[in-house]
Amino acid sequence: MTVLNTRMSLVALACALVSPTLLAEDSSLTNPAISAVLNGYYQTGERPLAESPDGFGLGETELAMSANIDDMFYGKVTAVVESHDGETELNLEEAFIQTMAMPAGFSIRGGRFLSDIGYLNNQHLHTDAFTDRPIVYRAFLGGHYFDDGVRLNYVAPTDLYWTMGIEAFKGDSLRAADEHGEREFKKVGIYTLYSKIGGDIGDNSSWQAGLSYLRNENGQMTAHEEGDGHDEATEDGEAGHSHAASYTGKNTYGADFVYKWAPNGNYKYQNLTLSGEYYRVSDFTPVDLHPEDAPSQDYHQGWYLSSVYQFTPSWSAGLRYGEVDTQELHDDHFHGQKLKESEVTLAWHSSHFSTVRFQYTHQKGTNFDGIEDDNIFTIQYIMSLGAHGAHQF
Amino acid sequence: MRINSNLAKLAAVALSVAYTGLAHAELNVFACEPEYAALTKELAPTASIYSATTALQDPHQVQARPSLIAKMRQADLVVCAGADLEIGWLPMLQMKSANANVRSTDQGLFFAADQIETLDKLASVDRSMGDVHAKGNPHLHFDPTRLLKVATALTAKMVQLDPAGAADYQKSLADFSTRWQAAIPRWEEQAKGLQGKKVIAYHSSFKYLFNWIGIEQVADLEPKPGLAPTSGHLASLLSRAEQGDILAVIVASYQDERGAKWLGEKANLPVVMLPMSVGGNDSSKDLFSLYDSVISLLNGVK
Fold first, then answer.
1. N or C, where is chain A less crowded by C-beta within 10 Å?
2. DSSP conformation letters of A160-208
């Protein structure tokens, strides 16, 4: 993963926070918008392929700054500070510019940014209603897929919301394993296509549905002489911390939906969010695989369904079920694997800017990293300070 | 040849129709709140106007939902309260709708709060104060004089965007101003008996109304702006209410009545739900009837 991987001092952190404030034209903290997200937790176990080890820990501490650069461009930087095994790392999760004045509903974004495939992927982790992304995201997209690249997006001039876009990325974090270091990877590894439609149903409900396709030029495995081909993270010696996807293939297809409801469309007191996504990763087997070694199922797949109900301004509860069904290469043949996660969460919001969350996860695995029947409890806080960021639907 | 000349005539007619259509193209207006949809309707009766929220929705907490992106994508003019009221959703809509025409107040973006002096501006803002706006209270549409100033500025904005319609916009403004200026003294006369009365209200939603007709809001149902009433805070309001000088407990049409009802029952005070905007109750069909309704509801508890 090509992230800026530096030891951080508190001084640098303080500078990152303070100096832009001095540049702001007025004292209202709105130009540029500067914000920080604090995130800490304690949990009794570790969810597979997630980024948070058990015990006490800090999640992603985000530092973000954004503003209109001039009347043509908008820019945003999001730095993420993570601690792992006593090391403090500074990663850039976003550093992009976007055009704001192109005609006819077109816009271009370039730099490092979150891909717009699926529903959850373009949202920041701190806005999630659960402590970790669904297992399907962790397995196929490395939690959330951000990368260096470019996007062209179009919004149609219709009353029914309709947007579509195309992206190209470097794709390093979605490369298939290359244990011998001999593979010549393509420089532009990822191309995506997506389209979303959405609208309202009366005053109470809104919805959005989307389809995505991800082409991964470097996603297909090469033949392995020995060893374990599936777990890139382990090979990097950074178990539990790589943003890399664990299961890749040449073609990934996704479908997503979200439905939100609030009485009279007033989200302040009560509201409900239902969402779900499905992904299928195909063409992952090595090209020169002997037909007799072919897996019983020639695709990986995974999905989740999530429901979150905010029943007062201060309390919300959520239920999520997700599973992945994958093929793991051992020596020269494949084994089927399965993981099912059922999760319940209860969150207290002292204001719009602070959340304390309790989450229980039950995992049921078949041939999946030794997980058979595990229970994990997490308590987590996520708080934001600084500018009030606008949230996506 | 005859056919050809007919075709040419037809084409000429079609062209001139198209041209006239362009010259008098009606503005497509996206209003953040229903009061600004209503004001735009007064000033540009034939414009195509869409209100992003209703009077039953808290404008602080609106989802940047797909339908709003689609509507903003097509807008020539976006009219909002401003003063950071829409900070949680408007920037996202601007980003996602990719409509260059409504990005800047130099072009098709209009903030009402920019046109007037807001109340309660703050020199510095700290989140321990709750969800407050440094740029002042954005719920300015219940001050008739300020709203008239906004109407004048909004007309100038529409003339800027659609110069061909200038005469029509000016005529509508003159008509609206005459009717509005005639209504102000009438409302002030009706509200005379409310002067100096004390109320407990939810949020600072009616700050401008109270400021105008001389009502004093002595306490807030919210412990801090943006936070829902807590039982401890309600208990302190009850002891305040027991002083016996409170006229009523007031909530807006998008606010939860439970805290107010509890206080009303315990302190034996009437609870009045006022329409926050046009459409907030059955009688508020435009800005005039909204003001009529609010004053008559307040007079009803006197």
1. N
2. SEEEEEEEEE--GGGPPP-TTS-----SS-EEEEEEEEEEEETTTEEEE
